[in-house]
Amino acid sequence: MSVVAKIALEGASKEFTGRGETVLALQPTTIEIAREQFVALVGPSGCGKSTVLNMIAGLQAPTAGRVVYDGTPVSGPNRQVGYMTQKDTLLPWRSVADNIGLALELKIRTVSANNRARRVAEMIELVGLTGFERHYPGELSGGMRKRVALARSLIYEPETLLMDEPFAALDAQLRLVMHDELLRLTRLRRMTVVFVTHDLGEAITLADRVIVFTGRPGRIKALREIPLAHPRDAFRVRFSEAFAHLHEELWNELKDEVAKGTDR
Amino acid sequence: MSGFWRGFVARPLGMALIRSAMLVALLVGWEWASGNVIPKFWISSPSAIVAILGRWIADLSLFGHVGATLTEMGLGYVIGAAVGIACGLCLGFLPRLERITAPLIAALYALPKIALAPLFVILFGIGLESKIVLVASTIFFLLLYNTLDGVRDIDRDLVQALEVMGATRSEIVRKALVPATLPWIFTGLRIAVRYAFTAAILGELMASNEGIGYLIEASAGDYNTAGVYAAVFVLVAFSVMFTELLTRTEASALRWRV
Fold this sequence. Notes:
The complex is a heterodimer.
Chain A: E1 7-18, E2 21-33, E3 38-42, H1 49-56, E4 64-69, E5 72-73, E6 81-84, H2 96-100, H3 102-105, H4 113-126, H5 142-154, E7 160-164, H6 172-188, E8 192-197, H7 200-206, E9 209-213, E10 220-225, H8 241-263
Parallel strand pairs in A: 3-8, 3-9, 6-7, 7-8
Antiparallel strand pairs in A: 1-2, 1-4, 4-5, 9-10
Helix pairs in contact in A: 4-5, 7-8
Chain B: H1 2-10, H2 12-36, H3 40-43, H4 46-58, H5 61-93, H6 95-110, H7 117-124, H8 128-152, H9 156-165, H10 169-206, H11 212-221, H12 225-253
């Protein structure tokens, strides 16, 4: 990647200190993500994938090394990104519709009330929550809350989307629908996406590049470009021969790490 | 039989009937016991209490006393709560100021405000003002600490989510911190009703010439136990009414809490 990367980790590592013990969560890691690229991070639990997202979002500073966004080191919350965290951070006192429209109410975006209502309605339909507009988060199932969180981060179309296992709580059919929508939307809006998942199939379906991490302390184990052509059909792509080869190849990298993870 | 009983209790009307029956039994038992088992002088009787209440209402004296106590309690409550919430929010958002002032505030909080009541009488006289100050100083700390705890309890992840979304400092305060603190403020307001009445009555017991506390003190001075019970009954009625009012306001303001 000779052009300036959209996002770059330059030897970034992360240690956590608690109860007098220091745990290395992420070994010094270097990643370059180009503009409009869709990158999936795959690896066992606790391998520092979420830490990578937190560092790009500017919510955690690397212990050593640095994270660069658009050529500028990240320090403090990164407002260029939309971040869908693993834990949904919905505001419990706001209805579904008001949660989804939250970003459009802020001063840095000038959106008229009419326009906002229309876009909220579109998002609600997209994530299949029609009829629940006036419900509060406490009245929803875990999967529904995830969909609200997804709609909330998609609605303002940030140039970069960070997603931490966004679809893990969804049923299989809805997950495929969301894959299709995400592919369509991110390409249409020319978004850069960093996507954390446990699901290798999901990673191959969506990503231009898959990065496999080892177990803790996390380190990049394998890096694979996904040459499947766009536009991809999220419903069919997994039945192609190329997909099966990629899955096989990446699974060989991943399976030892997963096994190591369960031994402990 | 037991099935019938359970169904009966489950209905609002059935529940109301059972509660009324309990109350009637209590009153009848009290009326009977008074004079027969326990001297009338000690426990008075429901009929004597009703008679006194009737007399106070007829000569309009009750309204003056109730008005005085409600004024002290109400003004003290509103002033103490407003200042307490404002200070709680300020200290919550300015953690450094909070750390500096924490020992001072803790010391003032630990001080039983009632110990200051004689001082308030010297400073503000035996009229309503000294009681308003006493009530306000009690309520202030209750709401200060409740609000402060509320601000501290805020989910940091919510704030971070708003920061990444591009919210300004004031937007974060308005859209996340204040609504998140609201349940804590309501809890404080609800608890504060009882404390406000207690402070107002104690102030009146100590030095006053009107109010429900004065009524209790004056009746006791005349060895008129029926008068004491009647005044206490009025007090309980208002305390329950205000607490209930707040509980309902809270329930409708915090509908999202399911």
